[in-house]
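Please, is this right?
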Amino acid sequence: MIIDILQVGPLAVNCFIVGCESTREGFIVDAGGDAEHVIAAADRRRLNITHVINTHGHFDHVGGNRAVVDYFGAKLLIHEADAPMLKRAADVARSYGLPGDNSPEPDGYLTDGMEIMLGKHKMKVLHTPGHTPGGCSLYFEEKKKLISGDTLFADSIGRTDLPGGSYPQLIESVVSKLFVLPDDVTVYPGHGPATTIGHEKRHNPYF
């Protein structure tokens, strides 16, 4: 399975280009900005991008949606609870003094336990609210790889002081949805370096 990581946008979001080497089907997760670089990276892999997926609706994770969706003709997916954020992304970015772009409306909604095939690989959606109401993590069980969005970071967790955030809910999401996964699952957060479930269970100061 292909997983390429690009740091995009003014807040250095990890954007993931995920692909099946056999079928050349691909997903782009969190097209947060620098759309031309995201598109070029997917094209270099010669992937047929079928879906653009947002782990949550914050402006720094959705800012490149429009350009990437338009270029590939891909379907856009996000959890329904975060979908309203897509049309406010530009205004929120400007409130921080940053450039931003609104996203198109989603073509469908992520739901807890939903499974989506990526060529020969299966991706399972885990609803992990707390950073936002609709925050989701994406789990490739057979490859032991998890894209955690802004739910879980290396030695940290997502902030919960933004509108819709909840610290107790985030802690519950991590404990009940992520820490039950095998220790050797590699975790790819929405910002910063990769880690593992085992490392976070043993060393994350929030737990």
Notes: Residues 167-178 form the longest helix (12 residues). The mean pLDDT is 97.
